[in-house]
Design brief:
4-stranded mixed beta sheet; 88 residues; 4 strands; alpha+beta
């Protein structure tokens, strides 16, 4: 994917951007991916939070990569159980 502009990176790192997707006990489902895609279409930047204890710390990076690949988006920021993805 393309490299995001500086203003997108700045917005992604802002605490003002609140998570709009929460990965709960049902995990990564097709419905969740569809919801992420829908939000990316309407606002291009989506913050996702995974409930603690749902995935092993070592697996979380793979989860972020999977979400980005499944939604054809770019992972801007990932810190622990919170990540921001962007679609141009």
């Amino acid at each position: 994917m393309s490299n995001p502009p500086k203003h997108i990176k700045k917005l992604a790192m802002s605490r003002e951007l609140k998570p709009t997707i929460r990965v709960g006990k049902s995990g990564l489902s097709e419905n969740l991916i569809s919801e992420i895609n829908g939000q990316l279409i309407s606002k291009n930047l989506v913050k996702i939070k995974i409930n603690r204890g749902l995935f092993n710390k070592n697996d979380i990076d793979n989860v972020w990569k999977h979400i980005a690949e499944s939604t054809n988006s770019t992972l801007i920021s990932a810190r622990g159980n919170v990540a921001v993805i962007w679609k141009q």
